[in-house]
């Protein structure tokens, strides 16, 4: 994979380079936010690993600006901040994953490899999935319900896609965190509930028939009830 690492701590840069060496990854380095944003715009990367506390431009602002130009590239946030509100804010900027510092190299490798597998799996799946009059075109990353286009953020899209390819199946919050955000938190984060509410406002509230249902004590399910 072609990886862009935006990080200003030499020790962390060295750790990541050593940790991913021999994994068939090539790593480009930017040591401040403005340089990282420029490199992300000029080159094609398979993954961006992005620190939050950066000189020049905060990592969350870098993430937001990258997303305005590129909805596809996965972004893995690195941060010493581990409170729920910090994590939710990162996902509100459309980050794909969040890893707290200090971290273990095995966990970083596992997350990087998961992004690689996810990209491979997307290439082998069908182009369109639907339920009722809700349709996702997985090539163009567009969503419609009836004749109405639904505009989603990158994170909202991934959540809806996961619910849709598992339609009629009750999915726990842990399942959703692992598959949509590539995370395994043991800290009671409510990021899943927050994003389900975002989706409901866009694909359910404007329409008479509701598709996203809560199964109390178990999770969420996307189904077309009569």
From TrEMBL:
Keywords: DNA-binding, Phosphoprotein, Transcription, Transcription regulation, Two-component regulatory system
OmpR/PhoB-type domain sequence ranges: 126-224
Domain Response regulatory: from-to ranges: 2-116
Gene Ontology biological-process annotations: regulation of DNA-templated transcription
A UniProt-annotated Pfam family: Trans_reg_C
GO cellular component: cytosol; protein-DNA complex
Record-linked InterPro entries: CheY-like_superfamily, OmpR/PhoB-type_DNA-bd, Sig_transdc_resp-reg_receiver, WalR-like, WH-like_DNA-bd_sf
PTM annotation (4-aspartylphosphate): residues: 51
SUPFAM superfamilies noted in UniProt: CheY-like
Top-level taxon in the UniProt lineage: Bacteria
DNA-binding region of this protein: 126-224
GO terms for MF: phosphorelay response regulator activity; transcription cis-regulatory region binding
SMART domains named among the record's database cross-references: REC, Trans_reg_C
PANTHER family from the UniProt entry: REGULATOR OF RPOS (PTHR48111)
The name this protein goes by in its record: DNA-binding response regulator
């Amino acid at each position: 994979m072609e990886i862009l690492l935006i990080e200003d701590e030499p020790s962390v840069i060295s750790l990541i380079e050593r940790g991913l060496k021999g994994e068939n990854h090539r790593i480009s380095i930017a040591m401040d936010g403005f340089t990282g944003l420029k490199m992300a715009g000029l080159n094609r990367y398979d993954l961006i690993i992005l620190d939050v506390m950066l000189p020049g431009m905060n990592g969350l602002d870098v993430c937001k600006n990258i997303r305005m130009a590129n909805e596809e590239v996965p972004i893995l946030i690195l941060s010493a901040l581990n409170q729920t509100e910090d994590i939710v804010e990162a996902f509100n900027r459309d980050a794909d994953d969040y890893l707290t510092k200090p971290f273990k190299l095995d966990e970083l490798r596992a997350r990087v490899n998961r992004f690689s597998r996810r990209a491979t799996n997307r290439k082998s799946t069908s182009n369109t999935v639907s339920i009722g009059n809700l349709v996702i075109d997985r090539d163009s990353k567009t969503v419609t319900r009836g004749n109405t286009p639904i505009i989603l953020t990158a994170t909202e899209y991934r959540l809806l896609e996961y619910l849709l390819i598992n339609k009629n199946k009750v999915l726990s919050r842990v399942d959703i965190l692992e598959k949509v955000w590539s995370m395994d938190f043991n800290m009671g984060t409510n990021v899943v509930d927050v994003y389900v509410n975002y989706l409901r406002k866009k694909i359910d509230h404007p329409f008479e028939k509701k598709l996203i249902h809560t199964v109390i004590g178990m999770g969420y399910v996307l189904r077309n009830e009569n």
